[in-house]
Design brief:
heterodimer, A: mainly beta, seven-stranded mixed beta sheet, about 50% strand, globular, B: four-stranded antiparallel beta sheet
Chain lengths: ~110, ~110
């Protein structure tokens, strides 16, 4: 069964550093998403991406965040200057259409120290 | 604003017993509805989905859910739980190709 692949599985970074989280969505999917889950809390929407542009973003997704789909296969989330409160599990997801549900990756655990 | 409510934060059931996890949504119309399961340290796996038609939907791992429009509910059920069902369960909903809105989750503990 096709999978969404995320790398790395765990990243530790110092506060103020830039991080790039990588995702390879399922190849025929058209819609791409990033979500995050702070430990013990609910899954929160960050951003959706369609047709090479952001289609929706949440209040969390401020100027420190950006997304790219540089080569037609990878989908990246960049945090320019990490804060302690950015520590969370970040999930990438993709779908052909929402009625079928998203396929989520296994996540990247980001720890900011 | 769209919202999904899972009123039970933590449920404990005995292995072999039946299970029902509650989910209520708040929308102007019927959204797409989903249940996801998350094992510790793992990603989110889709258990089942509803978008139209038969209000009782079957999913993987022996789970089913029933959509009740009159109650704005989409409760997850399993007739007999196994120790491997211990996990966090999330109800979610959305429209069109917009974002999913998740509930706060229900942690399921299975006792022997």
């Amino acid at each position: 069964e096709p999978e969404v692949t995320q790398t790395p599985s765990h990243q530790v970074t110092q506060m103020g550093q830039e991080v790039i989280l990588r995702c390879v969505p399922i190849s025929n999917h058209l819609y791409f998403y990033w979500y995050r889950q702070i430990l013990g809390q609910k899954v929160e929407f960050l951003v959706s991406f369609y047709n090479n542009e952001i289609s929706e973003k949440s209040e969390i997704f401020d100027d420190q965040f950006s997304v790219e789909r540089p080569d037609g296969s990878n989908f990246t989330l960049k945090i320019r200057s990490t804060k302690l409160e950015d520590s969370a599990m970040y999930f990438c997801a993709s779908t052909t259409t929402l009625r079928y549900g998203y396929t989520f990756g296994s996540g990247t655990r980001l720890t900011v120290v | 604003a769209q919202s999904v409510t899972q009123p039970d934060i933590h449920i404990t059931v005995s292995e072999g017993a039946s299970l029902e996890l509650r989910c209520n949504y708040s929308y102007g119309a019927t959204p797409y509805l989903f249940w996801y399961v998350q094992s510790p340290g793992q990603g989110l796996q889709l258990l089942l989905k509803y978008f139209s038609g038969d209000t009782l939907v079957q999913g993987i791992k022996g789970f089913e859910a029933e959509f009740k429009r009159s109650q704005s509910s989409f409760n997850l059920r399993k007739p007999s739980v196994h120790w491997s069902d211990a996990a966090e369960y999330f109800c979610a909903s959305g429209f069109g190709n917009e974002k999913l809105t998740f509930g706060t989750g229900t942690r399921l503990t299975i006792i022997p």
